[in-house]
Write a structure and sequence with these properties.
Oligomer: single chain
CATH class of the largest domain: Alpha Beta
CATH topology of the largest domain: Rossmann fold
Number of domains: 2
Strand content: 25-35%
Bound molecules: flavin-adenine dinucleotide
Largest sheet: 6 strands, antiparallel
Helix content: 10-25%
Radius of gyration: 20 Å
Number of strands: 12
Distance between the termini: 69 Å
CATH architecture of the largest domain: 3-Layer(aba) Sandwich
């Protein structure tokens, strides 16, 4: 008799793997304005969700309130840290159907995310000082990395050059600056501001070679993390190449899809 074999029970996929293939559902707890036109979305972290500080996800909205030619899915860096019980995403307000939907979300609404991916992470075994060159909302994975480092009592040397048009655009600035990291410096770089420049850790214009040489000694001896719009990351990379920083010391996280002109 030709009996049918029982259906396989996916021996290759464990429970976690199965979940990550289906996606994880997150429920919105609340929101908070973190800069001009910039909102933080706070979700409960699903049980067993694992990620490394600096990674990103593909985020899907179940239903769009307005048409969007790009559809309901975008990449987003996780703005919270692995030690936290919440998951945070932050974004600038935009005109797309995707952003309009996000701005109308209410507590209790849900989204779906994939497992976290990406290599914009700080290696634990390599203790070289880290320099972050950040444009605008590119601060999200850096917030995750720095808060996690503070939580772990890291004594690593961190320098953040944080570029925005105006101070009002600089999300998380007041939260990041006082983090309990003994060797951490945050330099605000404002491209459009005509406010008086503070005597230390405050610059005007765009991140450039004189700024790097002013704040960073032994330039080729550090690890560099470049994040923001694609044009921003490309400009920073060119500058580092000209300064002789080898490829393996340059980590990049270009936020493709983000407007690049004003780093907003
Ligand atoms: C790995 C990764 C991580 C990311 N993390 C974040 C994050 O943490 N926060 C965040 O806000 N974004 C992040 N992004 C970008 C995000 O995925 C969206 O692409 C971005 O927020 C733009 O959203 P939107 O398409 O809804 O457009 P909107 O913000 O609504 O922009 C309006 C419109 O402008 C158009 N547009 C985009 N770029 C240009 C351009 N150069 N010139 C003219 N028009 C343009 C778009 O097509 C869009 O329709 C990340 C991207 C990647 C790849």
């Amino acid at each position: 008799m030709n009996r049918k074999p029982p259906l396989p029970t996916l021996p290759f996929a464990g429970e976690e793997e199965k979940k990550s293939m289906q996606g994880y559902t997150l429920t919105l707890k609340g929101t908070r304005e973190v800069a001009d036109g910039t909102r933080l979305f706070i979700f409960d972290k699903p049980e067993g969700y694992i990620f490394q500080a600096g990674q990103y996800v593909a985020l899907t909205l179940p239903k769009l309130v307005a048409p969007d030619p790009k559809g309901p899915v975008r990449s987003f860096s996780i703005a919270s840290s692995p030690f936290e019980s919440e998951m945070h995403f932050a974004m600038r307000r935009g005109m797309s159907g995707f952003k309009q939907t996000f701005w109308q979300m209410q507590p209790g609404d849900t989204i779906t995310i994939t497992k976290a991916v990406g290599f914009f992470t700080v290696p634990k075994g390599d203790l070289r000082p880290v320099v972050f060159l950040v444009g605008g909302i590119g601060i999200t994975p850096v917030r995750s990395i720095l808060k996690q480092a503070a939580h772990e009592g890291s004594t690593r040397d961190f320098t953040l050059l944080y570029s925005n048009r105006f101070l009002k655009d600089a999300a998380f600035c007041e939260e990041i600056k006082p983090l309990p990291l003994p060797h951490f410096r945050c330099i605000t770089v404002l491209s459009q501001s005509d406010e008086v420049c503070q005597p230390i850790n405050d610059e005007r214009g765009y991140i450039c070679v004189p700024m790097i040489t002013k704040y960073i000694d032994d330039i080729p001896g550090k690890l560099y993390y470049l994040v923001g719009s694609l044009p921003f990351v490309e400009a920073m990379e060119k500058m580092l190449i000209d300064l002789g920083v080898p490829k393996e010391q340059r980590y990049k996280d270009p936020f493709t899809g983000l407007r690049g002109v004003d780093q907003k």
